[in-house]
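--- STAGE predict ---
source: upstream dedup step, 1 unique chain passed
mode: sequence only
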Amino acid sequence: MRAVADVVTAISAVFLLLALAERLPFYGIYSSPFGVIKVGSKLAVWVCAFVLMLLMEITLRRENGQLTRLLTRPTPLRLFLFAMLVYSANGRLIGAVDTIPARYLPFTILREFDFDFDEFDFLFSNRGVPAYLFLAHDHYLPFFPPFAGLLALPVYMFSVWSGVAPTSSLATDLEKLSASTIAAGSVVVLYMTLKRLTNEAAALLITTLYAFGTGTFSISAQALWQHGPSELFLAATLYCLVRGMEERRYSAYAGFFLAAAVICRYTNLLIALPLTIYILFHRRDQIVRFLLFALPLGVLLTLYNYLLFDSVVLVPYAMQVTDEAHWTPLFAGLAAKLVSPNRGLLIFSPVLLFSFIGIYLAWIQKGSELFRYLAIGVALNIAFYSRWPVWRDEWSFGPRYLTDIAPLLALFLVPSYSVLQPRRALRWTFVSLGALSIVIHAMGAFLPGGWNPDVGSKSRRVWSWSDGQLIYSLRTFIHKTTGKFAPHDYPKMAVSVNPPEVNRAAPVEITVSMYPGTDTDPLDCYLLIRSPEGEIRFLTQGSVSSVPTPFMPTLVLRQPRIESIRHRLGDAMPPGRYKILPLLFRAGSRFDLSSEAEGRVFEGQMMDISFLPTGAERRNSP
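--- STAGE serialize ---
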């Protein structure tokens, strides 16, 4: 059994490396009796295969062939691999334009040895400077801090040095793999921290809730946001501080990881300040070493900002704080961030209610100085984002901005769990809320997204249950699989083909009926036509194009409208059975066929059309 596992693991590793280099020997599109099969298009398939086989092999070796001990007797490595397996299982990137710089930064560093995006003209040609880039000294630079992309370098190295191009679809797969790896690393570090505070069973339970019942699952593991590296370094900070309660020198090491968390996400200063005060008052003999460990990363950030932006503080990302004039009233934002149906932390992760109970318990207990300073950091972070002018988190699942403090909130589950464990009712409440949290964030990872709180009234949707994100995801999933129950803000589309079978020389009429939803943003309408071999082309009013060309560009749907194509489409097509797919994108979005493409709004049901050979073609055929 072990020998077989070794061989299969080695084979899966080879195929993963080939996939990372886009060198799979059978990569491509094939016809089969069951339809068109696309092989090798998803890196996640090969990642999951390798991780699963490696997980099984390690368990077989260390547990005398007993696979049942895979989860009952975890090790850091097995925990890491299991988290990677779950995070990769949805097979897609769930990000936004904010993560694009981190996606392409490893390419420019490894190929050009610089930080500018000048060579990636596909990101900005004919579109001006996009929101995620900044033009300085005639160079296109990332608007956001670059450290998420730097942390992803080891994942990208093999692919970039194998010749994978930035325009390849593998770029998004590499971003997802990097994000999953970083998030899984934070899971392991937190588990090692919790084992120093409680027994192994409780540590595993709380780690599971952190890994799959918070934004770590639905946000950090899905794309290269700043949140994933922030959580990793905050978890490492917690490990050093907790271990520093017994071995004082580890308190000084926390300075390095806390500085890393700050340069990854500047709002972590709100956590760094109370923790620095904690070191000053309670680990005074370590304060100098603590600051010295933090210094190199502070110098690195200073050099990066000064050399690229001619400023140490007033860099584009940090300028958001000074530019925003309309701050949210504290209590209105606080209510929305904690209990609103669509951005409430306690709605999307209800088990974290026990974290706030843990904060109270830690505050009143003697000998809990570290926990008190951590509580201050949590409070400052929540208060800041409650006041933040764009507190609605825009295009994301749940309260994205509060994802960074998930390791701290997980730590506060320890005092709660120790108190509720003897009480059966409270224990079952804890487990039930934990299971619900996991289900909710699994919905964010596996069900379709696209909900935005800014459709219509800027605050109405945030407080709506019937028009909320969770209901929206369920309705969208049902709609994509059955064609029914579309969310009401969707623009609706229907396509009819007359006749469905036509000689190539005869005219055909394709009619597109479009109906508005509550979202009236400008849209581009595409009609994609796919051949039996998988080749994709685009129908326009006057031609068939091989480049992504909108059938109806810059369309504003405020009332129903009907558009049609009537000409001899078959002249440009070999005989065969084709599929037509209607798509709506937000106007000006970069066309991308991935299911989570930025700006993609609607995907209709595919319609069949067959182009038959003409009489002359039939006579000349062998």
